[in-house]
Specification:
Elements lengths: L17 H15 L13 E3 L6 E3 L7 H15 L11 E6 L5 E6 H18 L11 E6 L5 E6 H12 L3 E2 L4 E2 L16 E4 L4 E3 L5 E6 L6 E11 L4 E8 L4 E9 L5 E10 L5 E7 L5 E4 L12 E6 L2
Antiparallel strand pairs: 1-2, 3-4, 5-6, 7-8, 9-18, 10-17, 11-16, 12-15, 12-17, 12-18, 13-14, 13-16
Length: about 300
């Protein structure tokens, strides 16, 4: 046996001898050597030694029950099965510093909510940067990957926005589909398209003759504005229209005395033009006259000019 067991000596009502009595006492004293000393072992835990022959007071870093329990808990956590993707109901142990360090717990949902709020506070307290560089990164929630957290460089962001901007802004649906600014910083959303007559257009009938026109494409909403210089040797009634070859955007009419040169202006909006926006002129009195490119011979050919600006 590990501990003292009496031998039955002395038998009841029997005489004993000193040698046998001392042997019994020695056996009892031997058990005392299997116990650790009390002095210097305050609050330490006692365990069976590695040989299994006696008890010993633990003298390592796990000497107290609290630290021993902590080490054992750490060991058990290290031996536990790993879980790579926690769910909201998973629980994590913690010491509550606001309640005398009692043992408490947090769910993964609690931790995520705290991290989310803390991130906003830290972000607001961060140092501002007024001029980001292409290598700077932004944290995003990827809606195409179940909200996974990913990074987006400023270069990628600018490239993406420029791609959206290249087609224009759809004002009716408030959807970004057009360009506001290209990567060089030059505004292209409101970049005007301008064209002027390079030479005079002679009117030979009462039909409409085309003056300046612009090739703006068939998508988007446009504002067009321009004017034409007209003249005739005879008194004239002029009819002018701004249109896309199918839809009239605006009309103007003017009477001029013989041999008088006048300028007639038209402007308006059109969505999804069917063709090139243009200014066409008809002379209704004589079917004669002309649309002039350069009234005073300055050489700049700006007297019959049309400008179109995409606005949607």
């Amino acid at each position: 046996m590990d501990w003292y067991q009496h031998s039955g000596y002395p038998a009841q009502s029997a005489n004993g001898d000193s040698a046998s009595a001392r042997s019994e006492f020695d056996a009892i004293a031997l058990d005392g050597t299997k116990m650790p000393a009390l002095t210097g072992s305050a609050l330490r835990i006692v365990r069976v030694n590695a040989a299994g022959t006696a008890l010993e007071s633990v003298t390592t870093a796990t000497a107290t029950l609290e630290t021993y329990a902590s080490v054992q808990a750490g060991t058990q956590i290290g031996l536990a099965a790993a879980k790579t993707t926690p769910v909201d109901a998973d629980v994590f142990p913690a010491l509550d510093s606001a309640a005398a360090n009692i043992l408490t717990k947090f769910t993964w949902a609690n931790i995520k909510a705290t991290m989310y709020n803390t991130f906003g506070v830290l972000l607001a307290a961060g140092t501002g940067k007024t001029t980001p560089t292409g290598a700077d990164s932004l944290a995003i929630s990827d809606s195409a990957a179940a909200g996974a957290t990913k990074t987006l460089t400023f270069t990628d962001l600018v490239t993406y926005l420029a791609g959206l901007c290249s087609a224009g802004w759809n004002a009716d649906t408030a959807t970004l589909a057009t360009t506001a600014t290209n990567l060089s910083g030059t505004p292209t959303f409101f970049a005007p398209i301008t064209n002027s007559l390079s030479s005079d257009v002679y009117i030979t009938s009462s039909a409409y003759f085309t003056g300046p026109s612009v090739a703006q494409g068939t998508s988007g909403k446009w504002f067009a504005s321009g004017s034409v210089a007209v003249t005739n040797s005879y008194a004239s009634h002029w009819a002018v229209k701004l249109w896309d070859g199918a839809t009239v955007i605006a009309r103007a009419a003017l009477y001029t005395p013989a041999s008088q040169t006048s300028s007639i202006a038209v402007s308006g909006f059109i969505a999804s033009p069917a063709g090139n926006i243009r200014i066409s002129v008809a002379e209704l009195s004589t079917g004669l006259g002309g649309i002039l490119a350069d009234v005073y011979g300055t050489g700049d050919n700006k007297d019959s000019t049309l400008t179109a600006i995409r606005v949607g």
